[in-house]
């Protein structure tokens, strides 16, 4: 079952609201916090939920911690209820394993990797806002994300229409591991997982017709990317010729997922491999005096917006000026 964006956006919104209302530790001396130049992601400043930096040493504050706990438990409770009704209700059975590595031509596994990465990031930011040091927040946030996603996979194992998927669990773990690795090998921060979604009704592609469409596995409109900070990887002798805000992303997507033709036969899923220009929004958008706005500005770097893209796939080669919208030049 897809983990695509099941909870990352809700988690970010819920946690920021609760923590924003409960942040009562502004009187702690600034010397207890990392200076901005020591809290960075690649060559960008990094922000916690409310735009600050983490403490040098873990020292949890009462009300932010209460807010963090309430937000996390509330999120877990809500998502359990939502997923129980959408995926697990009325079809329970004994625990079983179903390997679905070919599901959606592998795009589902990209979704699990991305979810593992982003969920760990959000949990880590949440912990730092409550008073955890960067190192503790990295490890504990990764653990929080992995525990929840593993719980979902186990619940899938009791759903008669699904099953525990080892490849899903591996992809979840890989996304979490990549998040942790970026902290210990900073060069990896020049590679950022990204996600894009545009409904097929806006792009001219065929839409799901086998069953009702749900956002979390509308794979015909979904693409997963890995964005590269090119400027940081160029030799110093030439990096001045490359704009520091301009990135390059490689992506993977599919078409014709869950689609039957007029005779009721599956059309057949086709793959698309992509490479395109991308943008570093922390460099493009000006810094705000409102801390949470800076966090949102930072979070935009996990989304790939439409832009110039070369596509090579089962349906041929084409160039889209504002991929995935249907303004293309085919070769």
Helix and strand composition category: alpha+beta
Radius of gyration: 21 Å
Inertia-based shape: globular
Helix content: 25-40%
Total strand segments: 9
Q: How many DSSP H or I helices?
A: 8
Low-confidence stretches: 3-28
Keyword list:
disordered N terminus, 9 strands, seven-stranded antiparallel sheet, alpha+beta, globular, 8 helices, single chain, 331 residues, two-stranded antiparallel sheet
Question: Your description of this structure?
Answer:
With 331 residues, this protein is an alpha+beta fold. It contains eight helices and nine strands. A seven-stranded antiparallel beta sheet has the order 3-4-5-6-7-8-9. A two-stranded antiparallel sheet has the order 1-2. A hairpin with a 4-residue loop joins β8 and β9. α1 packs antiparallel against α2 and α3 crosses α4.
